[in-house]
Amino acid sequence: MKIVFLTDLHGEVWKYDRLLKAARDFRADTVINGGDMLPKTGNLFDQDKFITGYLEKHFKKAAELGISYLCYLGNDDLRIFDDLFERTCEKYRGVVNLAQRKYDIGKFEFIGMNWVVDYPFRLKDRCRMDTKDYDFQRQYGKGLLSTQDGFEELPDWVATARTLPTIEDELDRLPKPKNMSQSIYVIHMPPHRLGLDVCANGSEVGSKAIYNFLERKQPMLSLHGHIHESPETSGVWHAKLGKTLCIQPGQLTPFMYVTIDLETMEFERHTEY
Ligand SMILES: [Zn+2]
């Protein structure tokens, strides 16, 4: 079973188009798109137009090629479009919204999670405290949640966040695989400590809860994204955590993706201009 994994395309059409070519060339069975799928420039409330105007055709093409497509929205994709996204995925065979779900392909079990640890940015649609004792970063302004009527400004985001489940709680709530050694976790947020979470300014913002979860559960593979520049900053795009291989391909101006053969566990990172 061969997969192509990429993340953080943020609505870049040429990368989406190139992705299907890469999947075909690699004879991939499955594409895994790790979140932040919609355009981030311009008005975020127009992201639905990208789903209906482009993404739907992209899913249709993948289905026609017989390539299954596991994906979810990310922290820069407004949660008010979750229903539209779900309905769009459901129209095409093999296209699956993997957010907080498990989907089996043959003996392999894929489990997705798109919650992220809180950050300084204002949009809080998918933000959580990492653990109960999480120290918040200095915020760039009042927190915002998307609603059908525009952004709702939160008077006290920190107080709101304390009422929500933590990343640690969310991980515990995920569907459980039957066989951990054949399970692949697709978690937008990277774990800490492995060099997969390093920002351009050198700060390491990864999740302790995700690290502890992977260390304890030991799936065969975990796939991450979110910190686009991390591989170029740290020089690291994959790491071993016990038996678990953790991959974070990053995403910068060129198209970056990883091909993986799950039978042989050979994997390679590709950068295309
Ligand atoms: Zn992200």
Explain briefly what this protein structure is.
The protein is of the alpha/beta class and 273 residues long.
Q: Report the CATH C-level class.
A: Alpha Beta
**CATH architecture descriptor text:** 4-Layer Sandwich
The first-to-last residue Cα distance is 27 Å
Mean pLDDT: 98
* Strand neighbour order, sheet with most strands: 4-3-2-1-15-16
Name the beta content range.
15-25%
Total DSSP helices: 7
Spell out the blueprint of helices and strands.
Layout: E1 2-6, H1 13-25, E2 30-33, H2 47-64, E3 68-71, H3 82-90, E4 95-97, E5 102-105, E6 108-113, E7 116-117, E8 127-128, E9 144-147, E10 150-153, H4 157-162, H5 167-173, E11 183-187, H6 208-217, E12 221-223, H7 230-234, E13 238-241, E14 244-247, E15 255-261, E16 266-272
Parallel strand pairs: 1-2, 2-3, 3-4, 6-11, 7-8, 11-12, 12-14
Antiparallel strand pairs: 1-15, 5-6, 9-10, 13-14, 15-16
Helix pairs in contact: 1-2, 2-3
Describe the structure.
By secondary structure, the chain is an alpha/beta fold. The chain starts with a strand and ends with a strand. The protein has one domain: 4-Layer Sandwich (Purple Acid Phosphatase, chain A, domain 2), CATH 3.60.21.10. The protein has seven helices and 16 strands. The structure holds zinc ion (ZN).
Question: Which features characterize this protein?
Answer:
single chain; 273 residues; alpha/beta; Purple Acid Phosphatase, chain A, domain 2; six-stranded mixed β-sheet; 7 helices; globular; binds zinc ion
